[in-house]
Amino acid sequence: MRTPTLLFVLTVIIASCQAQSPSQPSPASGTTSEAAVPADTATPSATADSIGPDSLRATADTLVIAMTGDIMMGTTYPTTQLPADGGSQVFRDTRDITLRADLALGNLEGTLLNGGTSTKGSGRYSFSFRTPPSYVQWLVEAGYDYVSQANNHANDFGREGILSTERTLDSAGIAYSGISGRRASAIVERGGVRYGICAFGHNKYTYRHRDLALVDRFIDSLKAHCDIVIVSFHGGAEGKDRSHLPQGSESFLGEDRGSLREFAHHCIDRGADIVFGHGPHVVRAMEVYKGKFIAYSLGNFCTPYGMALSGISGYSPVAEVRISRDGRFIDGQIHSFIQQKGVGPRHDANHSVARQIRDLSQQDIPASPLRINADGAMTLEAQP
Ligand SMILES: [Zn+2]
Question: Among 171, 281, 294, 363, which is least packed by CB within 10 angstroms?
Fold first, then answer.
């Protein structure tokens, strides 16, 4: 949830090779981002009326975190494929959830840029994503506090794209991290709680999740400065037949993408409180490990163009999780949406993705105490 007066983002670990030091958005930058929201679509307040019956509420002792997968709101490359109304409705059905959360997180699968030159070319199987910077206002309106750049599209327009994306997010007061040599991690303060967030990917220009010494450094640093530590990762093989979480390492297109099960457990063992993934373009299992929540893939979330959306590829969950102030999972809700081409995620009364995640979790991590109901409600099995 956006709270501009409390906005406080700083860089914990700054790689030194950049001439332009990562900026530290001030409260003023948060105010700027609010000003970017048109008056007729002003950010709704999280009143009791806007909170659905299946929602979670933070209390004095608990926090609510909302997480989503890949976000690519539309692209102007190689041709213009943008949603209607300038993208104002892409988060129409999901924004109340991300807005009311104490912290809302997602994966920005692309760049926020005008112009520039693609690093990938424009072949049939070459995808470069370039979203108009003005679209950042829809992330603001939906209450996003942080987006990951550690993915396989953040470098689609090279350094120019990365710098433009950083500038755009800075001006909107949205924290980010994940590009190697740029901002390593972010600290976001909301409601007096300091959240430390780092993001890892599998591309060489990202901070890589296979580099566990690096992962340890980031988590240790955040742990020393923050109340809650959250790790985002973009990883795993991609495609409709990759929903199951393998044991051990997995590879895709000849690239070893590591063992995500081991990675996530390693992060928790090192001190992380939540680990959430994306990258396969389909969802994967969830679990509670040593009292901490892990989502192995949240799949596509808001990708109205540029991605296949048929069948399970169109399933787009919001994972809303309530944790204690010491980071332990209490309960949660998988909110189910299905993406429509050119539109974005829309309510799914059949709870399709919740039921899919329930089944995958039962099959792939049967020992986990996490219980997922058909409507997406998440609880902990009573321990003997
Ligand atoms: Zn990706």
Answer: 363
For the record, the structure tokens of 59 come out as 């209390």
179 CA → ligand 1 middle, Å: 14
Identify the domain containing residue 275 by its residue range: 4-47+64-380
- Compute, in angstroms, the gap from residue 152 CA to the centroid of ligand 1: 5
pLDDT in tens, the chain (384 residues): 654 433 333 343 333 333 333 333 333 333 222 222 222 223 333 333 333 445 677 777 999 999 999 999 999 999 999 999 999 999 999 999 999 999 999 999 999 999 999 999 767 777 999 999 999 999 999 999 999 999 999 999 999 999 999 999 999 999 999 999 999 899 999 999 999 999 999 999 999 999 999 999 999 999 999 999 999 999 999 999 999 999 999 999 988 888 999 999 999 999 999 999 999 999 999 999 999 999 999 999 999 999 999 999 999 999 999 999 999 999 999 999 999 999 999 999 999 999 999 999 999 999 999 999 999 999 999 766
Tell me the CA–centroid distance for residue 279 and ligand 1, in Å: 4
Residue carrying structure tokens 């709680």:
193
> How much distance in Å is there from the Cα of 269 to the middle of ligand 1?
26
Q: How far is the CA of 234 from the centre of ligand 1 (A)?
A: 7
**How far, in Å, is the centroid of ligand 1 from the Cα of 166?**
18
Query: What does each C-alpha distance from 58 to 46, 76, 240, 354 come to in angstroms?
Result: 12, 39, 35, 22
* Number of domains within the chain: 1
Residue 57 lies in a domain: no
Q: Which element (helix H / strand E) includes 378?
A: strand 377-380
Ligand 1 centroid to 151 CA: how many Å? 5
162: β partners: none
Taking the centre of ligand 1 as the mean of its atom positions, its distance from the CA of residue 60, in whole angstroms, is 36
Structure tokens at 330: 């209490």
Q: How far is the CA of 99 from the centre of ligand 1 (A)?
A: 24
Is the residue at 312 inside a domain?
A: yes
Contacts of 37 by beta carbon, 8 Å cutoff, 6+ apart = 43, 137, 140, 141
Strand, coil or helix: what is 356?
Answer: helix
Kindly give the distance from the C-alpha atom of residue 124 to the centroid of ligand 1, in angstroms, as a whole number. Answer: 17
CATH of the domain at 313: 3.60.21.10
For residue 56, tell me if it sits in a domain. Answer: no
Position 222 in a domain? yes
